[in-house]
Predict the 3D structure of the following.
Amino acid sequence: MSTRSLTLDLHPIYNKGQEIDAALNEAFMQAREKKAKELEIICGKGTGQLKKRVLRFLDKKEIRSMYHRIDKDKDNSGRIFVYFRWKRGI
């Protein structure tokens, strides 16, 4: 893993709502600090509830303003990729 790419695996905390939100916020803070180009979020396939929660998080206005785009892995429905384009000075 390069310093320009981060991974967040939510499997260990799939049923702990506040910990999920804290982990997502922490991952975004790390991405900003490291000027990461990509954040891979592993939410697993399961029932799809965790993925829906992650997508709702990503759709928050203050979070949407931080990233350039998201992709759902076409080969693995349990992964979401978040791509960043950082401006200088941020």
Notes: The longest strand covers residues 5-9. The chain has one domain: 5-83. Strands lie at 5-9, 38-42, 69-72, 79-83. The chain has a mean pLDDT of 89.
